[in-house]
Amino acid sequence: MRNKWEHYLWLPLIFSLLLLVVPQFSFVKSSFYADLEFGAVSEIVSLDSYRVLFSEEIYRNAFFRTLYLSAGATCISLILALPTAYSMSRSGRLVASVGLNAIIAISLVSISVKLLGLNVMLAGSGVINQSLIALGLIDTPIQLLNNRIGVLVGLVQYTLPITILMLYSVMSTIPAQIEEAAHIHGATRSATFFRLIVPLASGGLLNGGLIAFNMCMGAFTSPLILGGGRVLTIPVLIQQKMIAEAKYSVAAALSVSLVLFVFAVNLFLGLAISRRQKLSRRRRAWHARLQGEVT
Amino acid sequence: MSTLELDAVSKRYDDFYAAKRLSLEVGFGESVVFLGPSGCGKTTALRMIAGFVTPTEGRILLDGRDITGLSPRLRNMGMVFQNYALFPSMTIAENIAFGLRQRRESNQAIRQRVGQLLELIKLEGRGDSFCNELSGGQQQRVALARALAFKPQILLMDESLSALDLKLREEMQIELRRLQREMSITMIFVTHDQLEAMTLADRIVVMNGGEIQQVGAPPDLYGRPENEFVASFIGKNNLFWADVIEARGKTSTLRLSEQLTVKLELPLPVASGSRLAFGIRPERIRMTVASQVSGNDGLVGTLTDQQFLGNITHHFVLLGDGKTVLVETSGKEERVATGSSVVLHFDSDAIRILDQRSRA
Ligand SMILES: Nc1ncnc2c1ncn2[C@@H]1O[C@H](COP(=O)(O)OP(=O)(O)O)[C@@H](O)[C@H]1O
Ligand SMILES: [Mg+2]
User: Fold this and answer.
1) Tally of domains within chain A
2) Does a structural domain hold residue A48?
3) Which of A102, A151, B81, B339 holds its CA 20 to 30 A away from the CA of B215?
């Protein structure tokens, strides 16, 4: 008889439910009991906390800020990861394994250590500003810390390793013969890359991009440290509300909204893509029929 | 002037020659097949012609121009890969159009040519399908159309039919050969299958151990092999090594082994005292039951096994020294019972001398 492997999935599922969904429930619940003064909460169920989110500009702005910083960091990560992953998948076994191990090692270093490093580098007296001054490109240091630039750099550093790994795993499944076929039939290296490799890696680009985006939306440490508390993203705001202002219900409502929003983005993109695939398949079938009738 | 010329081309990996001093001229519209066992360097040779592998020595010329270091995309060659290597992200029409697009042909010219080729490969109306919707044979034809679309100077094929099942493969061989002749395609085909080579080739290049063993039209290679390797690789053969004990004119006394000495009429005179390799094709040997033979010439043996193959029969005859000789008959001869004592005869022109060296 066939072994039903899916039965082994029950255990991790139950585990995840306990660890993930149950705490979320208490969050969701507390978001419906509005904040009173000094950390106390109301005993009446209401949507007051959500109303606050929609009526006050600071929250709306924070949402947009989080969204475009995340989207921007994701795009930069993908653009950096694409050629890196491609070169690694096309180099010898030694180079590839050294590269992969380096990336894994880097992503294992604690985020605070990496951020402190960035802090030193991006500072007015840091390497970047000092070299730009030495080259005569600028006179006074540019502000790279405690603003959105710093946060963006931090987010890219945070998501780049996983993006490279995701793209690498796709790139290494693209057979080298496909590229040879392109070359012998007249394609330049760049035509091969953009007309063959990128379309073939589009699934990986999408998955890697979504993962990077989700990581950015939930990122807390980089916006906090490199933004110096001045770049208010949703996660930073949640922390402020909870620790500094003891507004538990608003914090809970924020986090519920964040989760729902990210979930919606993922769902939307997933559906849009599967719809497009279905559509193009139908369009092709229709084309084929048409041609068949004509000829 | 030849279309393609290999001038002592070698590819060395460290101190191992994957291909060694290959020299060959291929004429316009000629079909040349590289044939040899696995690992003999056929693919290396083809990939040097394509430009994927850079020769360590020698030159490659196309229409008299040195292309040894030229990038593959500038060589104007089409290639069909063993696993086709079609572009999965493109439709069939886009695959076929690929070479034309890279050459910046007009949309109209591309559409017309793609239509032509779709018709040629009998896939009209399927241009908008994707490759994974096609059978292996259809994919193979798309790969061929893609390689021919831009009228390349040379068509390269590396074991391109090996993935098809036997019947389809044989059909494709004949189809490809017809196409190659009709369109005067200069083709270089690589295979390890000698029947495929014979079907497709004007000339076969037999390779072994990275070196060319012999180049010739299929009947030449079969009838006049120049060395032991070619003699045994092309068709079936019986190979012998013998010491020439005594040579008087063309009649020589040969010692095949300690136990077996025969008197044979050879096609050409040999030196007494030399060591000789020769081959005799199974269909050139006549087999007679020993009791019906008078005289004591010929090789005496025992018929140990027979294999009926329809139009022909294979007979295995064990000689006195333990060597087995293969005899092929075409079914018109009288049947001989397995286990009989038989005598083998052959004409002197059935003996092909493959090697002759002085005894060390
Ligand atoms: N990149 C390479 N590095 C080292 N040896 C190689 C390389 N490519 C091929 N070879 C060796 O060269 C020989 C010929 O290979 P190949 O041309 O692929 O043979 P064929 O196609 O006739 O089977 C083989 O022994 C193979 O192991
Ligand atoms: Mg090969």
Assistant:
1) 1
2) no
3) B81
Burial class (CB in 10 A: 0-12, 13-18, 19+), B294: exposed
- Among A274, A86, A199, CA closest to B130: A199
A269 min Cα distance to partner chain B (Å): 20
> How far does the CA of residue A90 sit from the closest CA of chain B (Å)?
15
| Interatomic CA distance for residues B113 and B94, integer angstroms | 12
- Residues B20-55 have pLDDT tens digits of 999 999 999 999 999 999 999 999 999 999 999 999
On the 0-12 / 13-18 / 19+ scale of CB atoms within 10 A, A267 is exposed
Cα A124 to the center of its chain, rounded Å = 28
- Report the SS3 class of residue B60: strand
Q: Which helix (H) or strand (E) holds A29?
A: helix A22-31
Contacts of B72 (CB under 8 A, 6+ apart): A180, A183, A184, B50, B51, B52
Which CATH entry fits the domain spanning B4-233: 3.40.50.170, 3.90.180.10, 3.40.50.150, 3.40.50.300?
A: 3.40.50.300
**Could you report the predicted ipTM of this complex, rounded to two decimals?**
0.87
CATH number of the structural domain B238-358: 2.40.50.140
Domain extents for chain B?
4-233, 238-358
Q: What percent of chain B has pLDDT over 90?
A: 79
Of all ligands present, the nearest one to the C-alpha of B53 is 1
Phi and psi, residue B317, nearest 5°: -115, 125
Q: Which residues of B346-360 are buried (b: 16+ CB within 10 A; e: fewer)?
A: beeebbbebbeeeee
Give the 3-state secondary structure of residue B154. strand
The CATH number of whichever domain residue A150 belongs to comes to 1.10.3720.10
Of A180, A288, A292, the CB nearest to B52: A180
Decide: B18 in ligand 1 pocket, CB within 6 A.
yes
**Domain-embedded: residue A45:** no
**Residue A140 lies in domain:** 53-294
Which of the 8 DSSP states describes residue B285? -
Q: How far apart are CA B81 and CA A108, in angstroms?
A: 42
**Helix, coil or strand: residue B226:** coil
Looking at this protein, which amino acid is placed at residue A165? L
Count of residues in chain A: 295
Distance B158 CA to ligand 2 centre (A): 7
Q: Using an 8 Å CB-CB cutoff, list chain A residues near B114.
A: none
pLDDT tens, position by position, A161-207: 999 999 999 999 999 999 999 999 999 999 999 999 999 998 889 98
